[in-house]
Amino acid sequence: ENIVAHLDNAPANTSRARVIAHATAEVAPAVVTSALTTVVSFLPIFALTAAEGKLFRPVAFTKSFAIIAALLVSMVALPALAHLVLRRPARGRAAGASAAEPKRSRLASASLIVVVVAVALLLTRSWLPLGPGHHFVVNFLFVAVTIGALLLAFFAFQHVYVPVLRWSLKHKALTLALPVAVLVGGVAAWSSLGREFMPPFDEGSFLYMPTTMPHASFGQALDMLHTMDAAIQEIPEVDRTVGKMGRAESPLDPAPISMFETVVTYKPEFGIDADGKRVRNWRDHIRSPDDIWDEIVKAAEAPGLTSAPMLMPINTRIIMLQSGMRAPMGIKVYGPDLETIESFGMKLEALLCEAPGIRPETVFADRVVGKPYVEIDIDREAIGRYGLTIGRVQDVIQVALGGRTLTRTVEGRERYPVRVRYMREERDSIEALGRVVVSAPGGEQIPLEQLVEIRYVKGPQVIKSEDTFLTSYVLFDKLPERSEVDVVNDARAFLSAKVESGDLDVPAGVSYRFAGSYENQVRSEQRLILLIPVALTLVFLLLYLQFRRVLTTLIIYSGVVLCVAGGFILIWLYGQPWFLDFEFLGTDMQHLFHVGTINLSVAVWVGVIALLGIATDTGVVMATYLAQRFRADPAHTVEEVHDRAVEAGQRRVRPCLMTTATTALALLPVITSQGRGADVMVPMALPSVGGMGAILLTLFVVPVLYAWVQERGLRQSQ
């Protein structure tokens, strides 16, 4: 843009190569500084660890490499290409325009319109913002209206920019009142947002994990599982349902019989029918995966079954590996014995059902002691009367109940154990076990019931320990409109109040703590609190090395603060029920733009960090030309200061608007995307989209503040 402007205004006898070199050198410091500040601002993302580091470090690497490549292209390749391609004569247009000038102008305008229409067609084909359910023409109209409205808004802004800037320079206090209001609104919006580790990621399937009573028999649990799976399979949006109970043949899956795991794979929202046309697979009232989950919960309701928190398979496995629990949040109870921690867990379950922000139907405390066991107590006096030993009686019990391996059979490369055991009908009840006979040394066949006492006792179905303490879990889930960290903090305060009031008595030797995925948010937040100021300090140093003035650097930083505030305001607006609550071309705008509650998460902070690099670009470009202009032609009066500021703003408003427009257009397909990953990408993109609106204020704030500094210095010198 600067090369074109210099070529248009250069004298006729000036070398084109010299003009291009001068234009490139004029903006080179701003371009290099902007690129370096963008790369440096990603340092906190490079320093992330654990799951968030694995997810977002590739994003930071990709963007850093792209910025470096763009810097090399703009500083090395673009000037050479401009010298080859731009064939305009190096003379000013005021020297005289040829008769063909209007014709060339009309041809250039027509070519631009053709290019815009072609780009809109290509974008519509790959984007389809309204979905394949609408005709291609309707999608094209939406894209054309969106692009047209955005470009018209920027053209109108450019048209009124100079008179508004002149007015702003004369009324600085009124001009700065709007940025201050935006800043205050951004702080208020930020303080009202909830916090969570990561936005819920749509994996295309759910993991429904209810539990039944620990004393349920194997056959009864299996019937309940089959009935539940069949009911879920009847949901039209469900593609496949596969249930499991108990554990696999692995010590890494210590799941009891009472715990069910059903993987429910649902159909994608859009599919292709037999004619090759894209159709919608969901019913009209099903608008999101959350609605499918509600249908699953309704279909799976049955006596003796608990509900379950909304989980997805991959996320569930990660949570289990990190915390050991099968829910995104819960309480770990530590104590000296199983009965005590179970009793205290039941008290917590009853209280958490009343806690704010928690779904009562998802609260469930582990039934640690409740599994029925058959206990056989050998009567030593009885076996002594018959001359039997403990070992002899135990051998009979082992063969009758558990079986004994006698040998192994070899079938090619396969080997199978050969076991001997009583028939099932001879060991499936206490009465049948009592009829098992034991051979005495004298040859007598003595029933087992005469030698032992057989009884049912309650025992643990699973024993968990952590940090040398016996452990049990109390699981719960949050309400959809609440954030994880806020719910945990409210529940912790609620239980603390109950302890202080005496409604909850913590037994001696028992302790509890909250656990779950919210711990990841706390850990990553503590790390970002340390790293983001370090990155901002490095960005400040880069800007200071460019301008050598602290006030100029602070002026550029004012634009960064405004953009971040604009991003938080947009995130707050997404949580308001009235925001974008209308239809356009038969499409609900709230559904299209994923309007809903957005909590502060690692994804949002990554978006804010990405915005920092973009926010400095406009300020650096504007401040660089202001510094060059005032250095080349110092102002001696306030009117000259205003003229220099207006000239700088007029020369740099177009490239700044180009950067803002391209960023906004590039992010529109992201915030309207409906595929996998949209749950994470939308919160990442929203800070940049909101910042693009606030960045327009920077085009006024930077010249106004810079002119104020120059006026202040002028008064001091006088």
Task: Compose a concise summary of this entry.
With 718 residues, this protein is of the alpha+beta class. Helices cover 58% and strands 13% of the residues.
Written account of the structure:
It contains 21 helices and 18 strands. With 718 residues, it is α+β, with helices and mostly antiparallel strands. The strands form 7 sheets. Strands 6, 7, 14, 15 and 16 form a 5-stranded antiparallel beta sheet that branches. It has a 3-stranded antiparallel beta sheet with strand order 1-3-2, covered by helices on one side. The chain is elongated, with a radius of gyration of 36 Å. Residues 90-97 have low confidence and may be disordered.
Task: Spell out the key features of this protein.
single chain, 3-stranded antiparallel β-sheet, alpha+beta, 5-stranded antiparallel β-sheet, 718 residues, 21 helices
Distance between the termini: 38 Å
Helix content: 55-70%
Low-confidence stretches: 90-97
- Helix count from the secondary structure assignment: 21
Average predicted local confidence, pLDDT:
85
Number of strands: 18
Name the shape in a single word: elongated
Percent of residues in beta strands?
5-15%
Radius of gyration (Å): 36 Å
Largest sheet: 5 strands, antiparallel
* Helix/strand structural class: alpha+beta
